[in-house]
Write a structure and sequence with these properties.
By secondary structure, the chain is α+β, with helices and mostly antiparallel strands. It has 2 helices and 5 strands, in the order E-H-E-E-E-E-H.
Amino acid sequence: MSTANTTPRPSVIQLAIKEKAALYAAYIPLFTEGGVFIPTSRDYRLGDDVYVLMSLPDDNQRYPIAGKVAWVTPAKAAGTRTQGVGVRFPADEKSRLLKNKIEDILGSHLGSDRTTQTI
């Protein structure tokens, strides 16, 4: 008799960011490896594994990220925040390259005071 693996498989989220302003609002530069806010009504817990297929403005390529939920914005959050999760990128080469690509796209916007969906 075999024992079933009780570890749930990570959910897959497709995130297509079409504009630089949307990328700015979603990107999380405070995480060392980078991260992204994903609007979702699905229930997640801190530490949940998520597999994100992300596309960036003016780029047809999809970037796979095996991240972890680092924070949760619940429904009806204060300050009209959008419900969703902050996903921290893993410490690997693919994530480092994606972080660099995002920061190249955002350029000087990274230092902006404009509000975002992130911390």
